[in-house]
Write a structure and sequence with these properties.
Number of helices: 3
Shape: globular
Oligomer: single chain
Radius of gyration: 13 Å
Structural class: mainly alpha
Strand content: under 5%
């Protein structure tokens, strides 16, 4: 595993959360948490056709685990 602070792939975040918390998280949940933290994501070209499309929201325990991983990788303080 690389030790590059400030940047981590979604795979690295997923692996960290699984290893340290025993939880599987989706890319959608990671993107939601990153957005809450103000981390700019690139434009998603695979958007839903309707504006009122429903997306599952990240459960609180997974949000905490993802935040821990983002802190570990130096992406948030």
């Amino acid at each position: 595993m690389q030790d590059k602070r400030g940047a981590a792939t979604y795979g690295q975040i997923k692996d960290y959360v699984l290893e340290h918390r025993g939880l599987k998280v989706s890319s959608l949940y990671i993107a939601q948490v990153k957005q809450k933290c103000g981390i700019i994501e690139r434009e998603n070209y695979n958007k839903a056709k309707s504006e009122d499309a429903k997306q599952p929201q990240c459960p609180p325990e997974k949000e905490v685990a993802i935040m821990e991983a983002l802190r570990y990788y130096g992406m948030i303080i």
